[in-house]
Amino acid sequence: MGSEYTEVATKGMAAYRAPSLFQPHKARQALRDAYDGKINPLIGYYFGVPNIPTARVIAQLGADIVWVDWEHSPCGVETMTSIVHDIQFMSEGRSMAFVRVPGHDHAAIGYALDAGASIIIPQVETVEQAQHVVSAAKFGVAHKGSRSAPPARWLTGLSDTPIDPTRSLFENVNDQAAIVIQIESELGVYNLDAILTAVGDQVDAVWMGTLDMRVGMGLDGFWGAEPEFLNVVKLYEETLKKHDMPNSGMCLGGDWAKGTNKAFVIVGTDHLAFLRETSTITAARQNLGPMQKRQNSKVQGLSNGTAT
Questions:
Q1: Torsion over CA of 236, 206, 185 and 222, rounded to 10 degrees?
Q2: What is the DSSP letter of 12?
Q3: CA–CA distances in Å: residue 222 to residues 157, 219, 251
Q4: How far apart are CA 138 and CA 145, in angstroms?
Q5: pTM of the complete model
Q6: Chain centroid, CA 178 distance in Å
Q7: Percentage helix, strand, coil, to 5, in the chain?
Q8: Distance CA 176, CA 161 (A)
Q9: What is the C-alpha separation between 108 and 209, in angstroms, rounded?
Q10: In this prediction, what percent of the chain has a pLDDT beyond 70?
Q11: How many CB atoms lie within 10 A of CB 46?
Q12: Angle at 78 between CA 73 and CA 81, to 5 degrees
């Protein structure tokens, strides 16, 4: 335990895998190692149109984390679970699944964790919401948890081997799966100090959801130079520094400066890859002209004795 980072160069996130890939990786440790500078930032791929066939391709891309957006997709529990399994098994543990759950529902949090994923929680604004999330995600009152133990998820002798045999499987899993909370409003930023004071020991990274935040502030786009927005960003960053908490965020289009000082960075997405094909389609329309129409006459002429 604790030396996994020494094998990342050759194994990727398989260095942090559990004995069974049905279990979550040691994602909490991986995030902390990235934050401490022991390994590079965890490179993530955003899977915004999740489906099983595409998951099997994305699993082979080499990302450390595949963000499965269950919040903004129509897939059900069974599809989400299969996607998590495909990512972790088809990558042979080199990629780990992080599922953004739809809201703060206790059951949804449990489904994602039972699948073997770590979780991303959207729109956390208050201490009470953060405490509810931690309760839903953790086993046992010692960890402020009320999560139900799944009797048929990790089967005896097949997928229940613990990383640390001196502790129960459930105690191990508590320390494996990561919780990333998204702060997506001014209220969330103002309450972040109190949130991290209350449950910071159970939260592994924070993500500023700038799109929702700016929409809520009446601003356009993912980023901007408006003073009121930059003041909120400054308070957010100062609060993370105060609590020694890893930051995370987007770093798209080769704008590497936006990935600075973040433990977990999304660098690619499926939906943007789709959008890039619009230029191909536009170029095709511009470069492929209409076919030459055939004349209607039965015989248009003879060429070398052959009707044309």
A1: 90
A2: G
A3: 48, 9, 12
A4: 4
A5: 0.91
A6: 11
A7: 45, 15, 45
A8: 13
A9: 20
A10: 95
A11: 23
A12: 85
Residue whose token pair is 């987007």: 250
Q: What 3 state SS string does 195-207 have?
A: HHHHHCCCCCEEE
pLDDT of residue 142: 87
Cβ neighbors of 145 (< 8 A, separation 6 or more) are 134, 135, 136, 137, 138, 139, 174
Which two structure tokens, joined as six digits, stand for 158? 């097949």
| Distance from the Cα of residue 111 to its chain's centroid | 16
Q: What is the DSSP string of 259-286?
A: GTT-SEEEEEEHHHHHHHHHHHHHHHHH
pLDDT digits (tens, 9 = 90+) for 59-106: 999 999 999 999 999 999 999 999 999 999 999 999 999 999 999 999
Q: Which residue stretches of 115-226 are H helix?
A: 127-137, 169-176, 186-199, 210-216
What band does 292 get if pLDDT is binned at 50, 70 and 90?
Answer: confident
Residues near 61 by beta carbon (within 8 Å), at least 6 away in sequence: 45, 95, 268
Asked if residue 66 lies in contact with residue 58, where contact means CB atoms within 8 angstroms, the answer is yes
